[in-house]
Amino acid sequence: DDTSIPCIVAVHTSASLASEEQLRKTLSDFEKARTLKERERHLQAMRNIRASVPTPVGAPELRLPESDRHDVIPDRERLKKQLEMDIAEDAPSCIHCCFGCCGGPVKTVETCMCTVPEDKKVVMREAIQEYRNLR
Q: Cβ(13)–Cβ(104) under 8 Å?
């Protein structure tokens, strides 16, 4: 009978379901990461998780996410914009009014680093350095 449609079933194992949960958590951490080093570390962790668990039977034929072995590194411009927004968000409120005349949040915070609280200075310097490296 040629009216039947072939069916492919993907069978998940407990390991593949656990790895999927780990991938989701790592992806969430990746999206919250503020520096390029942190993002690269999370990307490597996702690659390691994918490599450690075999693809479920049938997944390649269905092109399920588990069979996709490509990690897409975020667009450079989008990452720059995200860093700029994070720096602006963490900047002391007293210098927000200077963003327009000092060349944006990155340059303003760099110029007015003395207004940044001591506990945030290291993080801000790292974020600014990451922004500069993306140029």
A: no
Residues 74-120: pLDDT tens digits? 567 778 888 888 899 989 999 999 999 998 999 999 999 999 999 99
Among residues 90, 85, 81, 78, the alpha carbon closest in space to that of 116 is found at 90
Half-sphere exposure (Cβ direction) of 34: Cα atoms closer than 13 Å: 15
Q: Which DSSP string do the residues of 1-63 spell out, in sequence order?
A: -TT-------B--HHHHHHHHHHHHHHHHHHH--SHHHHHHHHHHHHHHHHHSPPPBTHHHHT
**Number of Cβ within a 10 Å radius of residue 108:** 22
Note every long-range contact of 40-44, with CB atoms under 8 Å and residues 24 or more positions apart, other chains counting: 43/71, 43/73
Side-chain half-sphere CA neighbours of 92 within 13 A:
16
Query: 21 to each of 2, 15, 24, 66, 73, how far by Cα in Å?
Result: 40, 10, 5, 12, 21
Name the residue with higher pLDDT: 70 or 23: 23
What are φ and ψ of residue 57, in 5° steps?
-60, 130
Q: Which amino acid is at 9?
A: V
